Amino acid sequence: MPPKKKLTTPFHSRIDLPEDTRNAIGLILNERLADFLDLERQAKQAHWNVKGPNFGPLHALFDEVAALAVGWADDLAERAVQLGCVAEGTLGVIAKRSRLPECPLQAPDATAWVHQVAEALAFCANAARADIEEADAADDAITADLLTRITGEADKQLWMVESHLA
Ligand SMILES: [Fe+2]
């Protein structure tokens, strides 16, 4: 699989995948890393600023999304490094690379915060889902498995958030 663009020349790795494959998968992993770190920031923004009669449950739910996003991001970053790539998780890189919808500092009401977090979470889950096939096609079953697990957990969390909109 040819790389979409050169990320960082992979370091030596004894993992027996071709360098081009490791580079291409590293790029995917860093794209998803930026999304999930942005999701963590957005969920915390909602956690801090949500108001209204459902404050308690939403405050807790948004914190749970943030904590899960950090865990998913950590696994994505560490897989990139395992493949010999650099994990790029600084705020400057995240701001440039994340394709999530922009998060406002304040939302008009609690429902708007639920929509915001649901959109961000869905974007992350759907992007990870789309990359499973690419990892499979590159014969990187470990990354495909990681993305499958993360997508499943993110889908479940999306259900928890979307249920507040029923
Ligand atoms: Fe808190």
Q: Could you walk me through the main structural features you see in this protein, from its secondary elements to its overall organization?
A:
This protein is elongated. Helices cover 70% and strands 0% of the residues. α1 packs antiparallel against α2 and α1 packs across α3. It is an all-alpha fold. The chain has a single domain, classed as Ferritin (Up-down Bundle). 42% of the residues are buried. It is built from 5 helices and no strands. The structure holds fe (ii) ion. The site of fe (ii) ion (FE2) has 2 residues, from loops.
Task: Based on the model shown, name its key terms.
166 residues, mainly alpha, Ferritin, binds fe (ii) ion
Please, how many domains?
1
Number of strands: 0
| Overall body shape | elongated
Helix content: 55-70%
In short:
Helix content is 70%, strand content 0%. The chain has 166 residues and is mainly alpha-helical.
Element layout with pairings:
Elements: H1 19-49, H2 55-82, H3 91-97, H4 110-137, H5 141-162
Helix pairs in contact: 1-2, 1-3, 1-4, 2-4, 2-5, 4-5
The protein binds fe (ii) ion.
